[in-house]
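Why does residue order matter? Because the sequence determines the fold. Keep that principle in mind as you read this record.
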Amino acid sequence: MIHTVSHGDILEIQIANPPVNALAAGVRQGLTEAIAQGQSDPAITAIIIRGNGKLFSGGADIAEFDKPIEDPLPPVIFDAIEASAKPVIAAIHGMALGGGLELALACHYRVATKGAKLGLPEVKLGLLPGAGGTQRLPRLIGISAALDMIVSGSTMSATRAKELGLVDALADDAELLRDAIAFAQNVSEPRRSSALIVATEPEALEQFVSANARRLKGQDAPQACIEAVKASAELPFEEGMLKERALFARLMNGDQSKSLRHIFFAERTAAKIDDMPKDVQPRAVGRVGVIGAGTMGGGIAMNFLSAGIPVTIVEMTQEALERGVGIIRKNYETSAARGRITSDQVGQAMGLLKPTLDFGSLAECDLIIEAVYESMGVKKEIFSKLDRIAKPGALLASNTSYLDIDEIASVTGRPQDVVGMHFFSPANVMKLLEVVRGASTAPDVLATAMELSRRIGKVPVVSGVCHGFIGNRMLLPQLTNAIELVLDGATPAQVDKVHADFGMPMGPFLMTDLAGVDIGWHRDPARIESLRDAMCAEGRLGQKVNAGFYDYDDKRRPSPSPVAAKIIAGFAHKQGRGARQISDEEIIVRTLYTMVNEGAKILDEGIAQRASDIDVVWVFGYGWPAVKGGPMHWANTVGLTDIVNSLDAYKDRLGTDFTLSPLLSACAAQGRALDR
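Structure:
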């Protein structure tokens, strides 16, 4: 894992632990021995630490997560590196992340290739840099820049790092070792970051906290990061290190970090298909077809265009086609204006797009995704046409969010080639992709959909066939009970506040207004069978008309609506329901505990492969707070017995269709976590 090479009086220490040169126990032991070798050899005047392969080091070994860490511990090694009497230079290429960057910070100098990226992403796992990162980084680049980097967990370019003083010299990508050796030959004394004094910037801390208060509310790790960075300015290095380690230990044992680490591993596990034969190879996909250039179709197309995959997009009218292509172009140009991509990249993406009215042009595509109106009749008509047009072996995918993939596949002579690919809106932004496996979906089709999902930057989760699949099936009891709660006396604002306080990006009524109250509405104002019908009959269709469950101003800011309140009260009265006080506890039970119950049914029926897959769906597709680990992980944290007892206590208010999941009940009775 560690190799040493002498270049005259310079000792090169190579980290060779593919794929990311993680700082595993063997690497740490090897580093300890190599540093000692360099110290004891009188012929050596300086030491270079470099990573083999594509990067310097990706940091901690994930295999060691949630396990006791073997000696030597990273802080001990890094302190030994910094204490070296001979200059130690980190030669950085690719990435230096987490513990990898902390290793580089312990070195006396840093040389990096121009394309290198540096970052401390520990906060994304509910942790802070625990091997000196919060103490050394502020001493090198100042409080403000260190706070931005540590609290956000984002990466920094080597060029920017050079401007700030984190990197001492930039090297040619192909000549890193040469340039690092030249640098080492021109330094004679170690420069220890621990000896530097942090510039006092009390206003920087205050400004940062004030500017980020809303974004960081309720999150333990960012607050601890701020506290640790503050310690770097107020305490001697050794005391700051003790503070850092105490904060790290507190976070490591906290529920939020456990939840974030759960999601970290769950995302990776979701890519595994339990019954997939090992020898299955994905089909080649060189061109993708998209049917429909509307909001979803255009967003779907952008995913592939951005990944360099040509797209043929088909519409029924020239007007719709031009409008869709125009929106795609505008989205790319907006990204370019914000500096996220270059103007050349805009041109490259648009150059890969082939807009057409000719349905037959889809014959050239290896994957065709239908993204039209959510109507079984319309989708079956399209797939019947595709069956005649598509070339042999082409994947036929539907973006349906609810409908039966098997029924759609039944109109084709190739059901083995049919798969669901449910993108989430906006499709070019949201990371989740539900890959729906039909009864006849071939293993290589499923493997292709999963591989392609990852290729376009999505987080894919396999779902079986049922109404709404995983995410929307669980959403239904939440929305149904939210409506029932306001008919019982709660206000939309009260229900939404409970969800906002929980950490959701928005509550069910704000979400309904955003999506459109009229989704699925039969368009007959005289036919009022539900509260949503009553709202739509009065023209309250949601944000698009500035009137839904809330009133909206010209900047789409919501406020409680007396008109909506009157409609709700009127509909409740017609049902013979009287208003009563609704507690926040009842809202939690009826809107969130019922989701957990539905998730347990999904798991028990085999619709989801594992409980953690359900968590991934809700974190990446619906904004469930990652610090709570997804609904199933959260349920285990809350206590399944408490959830079962609460559902039982409110069962008379959950409707006649409510049934308790046998799996949820059994897990609670047996004291085990919710999983199959």
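The longest helix spans residues 584-604.
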